[in-house]
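Dissemination and training. As part of the outreach component of the grant, students in the summer workshop were shown how a complex can be specified as a set of sequence lines and then modelled as a single object. The example used during the hands-on session is reproduced here so that future cohorts can follow it. Participants entered these lines:
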Amino acid sequence: MQLSYGGGCMELPEEEEADWLCPEPGGRGSHAAPGRVSSTTLGAQSGHNKTLPSGSTAHRVIVHTDLDCFYAQVEMIHNPELRDKPLGVQQKYLVVTCNYEARRLGIQKLMSVRDAKEKCPELVLVNGEDLTQYREMSYKVTELLEEFSPLVERLGFDENFVDITELVEKRLAQLQRDGCSKVSVSGHVYNNQTVNLHDVMHIRLIIGSQIAAEMREAMYNRLGLTGCAGVASNKLLSKLVSGTFKPNQQTVLLPESCQDLVGSLDHISKIPGIGYKTTKRLELLGLSSVRDLQTFSPVILAKELGVSMAQHIQKLSYGDDHSPVASSGPPQSLSDEDSFKKCSSEMEVKKKIEELLANLLDRISKDGRKPHTIRLTIRKFSSTNKWFSRESRQCPIPSHVIQKFGTGSSDVVAPLVGILMKLFRKMIKLEMPFHLTLLSVCFSNLKALPTLTKGSIGFYLTQSSPPSSSGKKMDDVPQVQVNSCSFVP
DNA sequence: TGGGGTTAT
DNA sequence: ATAACCC
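and obtained this result:
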C-alpha cells in the first residue's frame, strides 16, 4: 500500500485487514461520563466487562514520534539543492547528524569531520551550531501533535511522546456506535504478531496505529518532515518500538511481544533511563544483558543504587513504565552556549558572554516571559579531566532589571553582563591563569507576564500609570513594579 | 564530542 | 550547585 503525499510517495507496509464484529453497537451507556474514559464492553470473548477509571494508567495508548535525521531534514527543506547529495550537519569538529544519502556512504552520527571527509570526500557540510531554525521547526512539530492530544511531551528537539488514550477511546466508542465493520493496522506490527480482534487492547493499539499514521501524514503534508512512530502501552515501550523499522516507518507493539522487545536489546545501556554512570555501576555487579538485570537480586541492587533507583531500573528491564506523559508546554529554561579551543583572558570571556547574552535576550523577548534567574556555566580545560565536568553559578535577577525585559530596546545588557562577570569571578580567580573551553548562559525560572484582568490591582495601577515609551529616561520615573508584586500568576 | 534540554538529589 | 538523564 502506498500513501501519496504532496511531494512523492511514502512506502508503508501492507495493511493487515480483518473484520471486527462489534458486539454491542450503539447500545447502553455509550457516552463516557465526563472525567472518565468511556467504558468498553467486550461481548463474546470476555466473561467480565472492563472499565477504565479516569487517569487509569492500565490501558494507555502512547505514541512516540522520532523525526529522521532532523537537522539534516530542516537544512534540506531550507535548501532543496541539498536533497540528493550526501549531507552532514556540522558543529565544531563533529558531524552531529547526516541524511540517509550520507549514511549509505558510511557516515554516522557524531563522527568527527576528519573521519567523515576521509570516508566521503564529496560529503556536503552545513554548519548547524545555530539551533534557531531547528528549534522553531521542533516546536511546530510539537504543536501539530498537540492538535491530536494536549498530552505531548518533548524529548530533545526531534522526539515527542503523545498520550492518545482518550482519542482512542472516542474512536472505539464511535466504531461501536457505527456498528463497525473493519479495523486495520497501519504500519508494522512488532514481531509480525497476529492481531487478535477479540482483544480490546489489540483494538486500541490498532486504532493507535491509525492515529500515528495520521500524525506522520500531517507532519509530512504540513511541515515536509518524515519520521518514525511507535505505538505501545507506555512511554518506554513506544520509544523502543518506534526504532524497529528505521527511516520513515511506524510500528505497533502488542502486549504479548513486550518481552521479546526488551529482550532484543543487546545491552542494558540500551534501555532509556540507564545512562553512562548507571551502566558502569551495573557492569561492576556483573550485569550486562537485560535478562541479567531482570533476574538480579532486588536487595543487592538496592544496596548499590538505592531502593528508588533500583526498583525503577528493574521495572524498566521488564518494560514496565508507569511514568505519565507530562505535557512539556513552553520551555523551563533558555540557554545559549559556545565551545572553543581556548579562552583565557577576562576580556575574551566578556566578549563571549556579551554575544551569548545578545542571542538570549532576542529569544526571551520573543518568548514573552521573563527570567528571574540567570546562570553562567563554564568548562575548564584539563588533560586528565573527567572530561565533561562543568561548573556553574546562578543568582536571582534583580527585579528592576526584570522590568526592562519585555520593553524592547531598554538597556538590560549592561547590568546582566555585570552580574555574569561577577558569577564568573566566583569560579575563576583572575590572578591565576585559566583556560576555558566552554561558556554558557542560561535564563531560568521563567514567569509569565502578569495578566491585567479588570478588577486586579495591577490593572488599575497600569491604567493610571502607563509605562513611558521614551525608553531612555525610565530610570528617572518611578515605575510600577508589576512583576515583583506577590500576586503574579 | 555539540548545543541544547529535563529531573532528582 | 551538581549530577544524572535525554536528544
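Chain A has 16 helices and 18 strands. Students were then asked to discuss how this feature might be tested experimentally.
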